Amino acid sequence: MTIDRSLYGNCTLCPKKCRINRLCGQIGFCRSGAEAVLSCALLHSGEEPPVTGSGGSGTIFFTGCTLMCGFCQNYQISRDLMGSEADCSELSDIMISLQKEGAENINLVTATHFIPSVAEAVFAARKKELDIPVLWNTSGYETEESVDMLMDFVDVFLPDVKTLDPVLAANLFRAADYPFYAANAVLKMAAGRKTDLSLTGKEGVIRSGVIVRHLVLPGELESTDQFLKWFSENLAERAILSIMFQYEPAGDYCMLPDRRISESEADQVYSMLDKYDIEDGFIQETEEETLWLPDFSKAAPFPGSREDAAWHWKKGFRRS
């Protein structure tokens, strides 16, 4: 499938299908033009063990989003649009820089609305000897046509399945069609990338496959139960499950309770895993303090970071 900038001319890259001409400066739901906009690129250690490995995941955070989640922890870049443009040459150089710093992979976070630009940069980086896996870290809100395009340059998929309840999806991220698109997209990803399930018990680095993430939301355990049932019936032997308990109240119009997941709720989720005979995968436990809530205005966005990002929207490349 051809992936080029002409796709911006009648944009249907995400399920919103705005059909506007981004090449001429028209702005759709994602509020993005025809050049990739990034916030930062860094070695990230907060992912699942097969993603982080020993060197860290070479993570590139893209600005803008195709959803509007009220609880988004990255709201500075998804809603406030904190970032700056990077053309193909600069984006490919960022990938090579992360590889040189020891990254286990290139982890592309929320880049659906920039697929043509990202594809161009990945192909250019591979000509510059990029030889680590490319990961697609997504909300799950993808069209099947976009997933087909991604198969040309993505090795590992890291989709969320936030909910399969259209009413909840409409209330929380203004997308009642999210369950339809996410379910079909993730099934297509799993069909196109065989997953090494043995990695659920090891810290080897995943090089091909699918890790499906689900954030447990306070007061919405019926949604989690619905998702886990679906996962057990459709993906138990085809993808790795990652359950996340680290919900943090961060939105300004979120309809969820203003609290974290309770111990009782976490126990109920463990019971659901037993009920559906799901034994393999990862659970990212909740923490007493917010360890991964980023501040993208800073050159070292994550608390506890030892050094500045390899590339930051205010400063460009880090100077050694």
Task: Provide the descriptors you would attach to this structure in a database record.
eleven-stranded mixed β-sheet; 320 residues; TIM Barrel; 11 strands; 28% helix; alpha/beta; 9 helices
By CATH, the superfamily comes out as: Aldolase class I
What average pLDDT do the residues reach?
93
Major beta-sheet overview: 11 strands, mixed
CATH topology: TIM Barrel
Approximate helicity band: 25-40%
* CATH architecture title: Alpha-Beta Barrel
Number of continuous helical runs: 9
Our measurement of the CA-to-CA distance between the termini, rounded to an integer number of angstroms, reads: 40 Å
Rg, Å, rounded:
18 Å
What does this structure look like?
With 320 residues, the chain is of the alpha/beta class. It is built from nine helices and eleven strands. Strands 1, 2, 3, 4, 5, 6, 7, 8, 9, 10 and 11 form an eleven-stranded mixed β-sheet that branches. Helix 3 packs across helix 4 and helix 8 packs parallel to helix 9.
